Amino acid sequence: MKKIEAYIRAERLKETIQKLKEIGAPGFTYYDVRGHGREYKSGFTPTPFTPPIVEDILPRSKIEVFCEDGDVEKIVDAIRGGCCTAKPGDGMVFISTIDEAQRLKTKEKVQKLE
Q1: Tens of pLDDT along 10-26?
Q2: How many CB atoms lie within 10 A of CB 81?
Q3: Is residue 5 within 8 Å of residue 63, measured between CB atoms?
Q4: H or E element that contains 70
Q5: Contact present, 92 and 6 (Cβ < 8 Å)
Q6: The CATH fold of domain 2-97
Q7: What's the gap between Cα 33 and its chain centre?
Q8: What is the pTM of this model?
């Protein structure tokens, strides 16, 4: 089992969620977050979508998807398809291995996501 975490432009969240739904992603969670990355070093210019909360801290969205090992490439491609603008600040994707998952109610160990 894998965990995919993607930090993307907040204004691209809707398109990214649509792409995940189109491929039948098993489920996902998203969060509104703020962060600082390399885009300012690359000559990034704020847009109307980047409110001036702190000069170099920008709104982002974080998406988490738990999936089977064989679905990682399909899910990452969907995220990339929804959020990529080919400009600095598009974001990052992190993929981790999940050693174990348990259902809270039954304490059952989850072998496969359904």
Answers
A1: 999 999 999 999 999 98
A2: 15
A3: yes
A4: none
A5: yes
A6: Alpha-Beta Plaits (3.30.70)
A7: 11
A8: 0.81
